[in-house]
Fold this protein.
Amino acid sequence: MNTGRSATGTVSWITLRWTRSSRYFRVHLEQDLWRGWLLTQVNGRIGSRLGRAHACPLPVHRNCLAAMN
């Protein structure tokens, strides 16, 4: 079924992961159900249950890419 809207598939989604010493970091960019973008940043200490996740909705893919820097 074609609704006349162009769909952005999962090809535009980005996940970055890295570690530094005993810390881990993850940044994930994905499109939500309402065609906006969600930037999720996760960090914590390796081997610990403590950590933090922060999600930030942004309307434009380009804004998310700039926020990742």
Summary: The mean pLDDT is 81.
